[in-house]
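Q: Predict the bound structure with adenosine monophosphate.
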Amino acid sequence: MRLILVGPPGAGKGTQATRLVEKYSIPQLSTGDMLRAAVAAQTPVGLKAKEVMDAGGLVSDEIVVGIIRDRISEDDAENGFILDGFPRTLPQAEALDQMLEENGLKLNGVLELRVDHTKLVDRIVKRAEEAKAAGQPVRKDDDPEVFKQRLEAYNRDTAVVVPYYEKTGLLSVIDGMQAIDEVSASIETVLQGLDEKV
Ligand code: AMP
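A: Predicted complex:
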């Protein structure tokens, strides 16, 4: 199963992806996680990406497409994957289509977690507080001011990805304002429908 989770920052993509990983035994490919690892390891990519990420902007298409190209060819992604945070621009979506086609692969579905953008800052503040309380590191970009930039980047560059997939008939919209378990249940219902179609 090859899936994309799309939605603004704080929509719950990471949480739902983690649940899908357990259920379907396929890896979560989060470009955000991979970039944070590159920043922590101070690789050339990490050094280039750090400033943009800290400011809530988007890392270049070239870098993230390269990361995903390498990652989807690894063994554990052979039976499928969940893309979380990629594609984030139209050129990324087009590059993914090309990559999949070259490998004779197809996407099964694209799940949009649709949320009320005015509620997202509260969510992100809560996420930072919970991480702090659990003794986990707080993401530098989970700060209300940086978050505004991330949301702007979503509206400006990423939102267009939704109609792109809608046209191909791959898109399912999930109400991301429901409780976490209810969002998971809605996703499950959609995925069962996909299984029947495939
Ligand atoms: P995330 O963990 O998905 O919220 O991503 C954290 C940050 O990493 C984003 O705010 C961007 O700066 C960068 N990033 C992650 N994925 C992408 C992508 N597909 N394209 C461009 N930048 C990305």
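A: Residues 9, 31-32, 35, 52-53, 56-59, 64, 85-86, 88, 92, 141, 150 surround adenosine monophosphate (CB under 6 Å).
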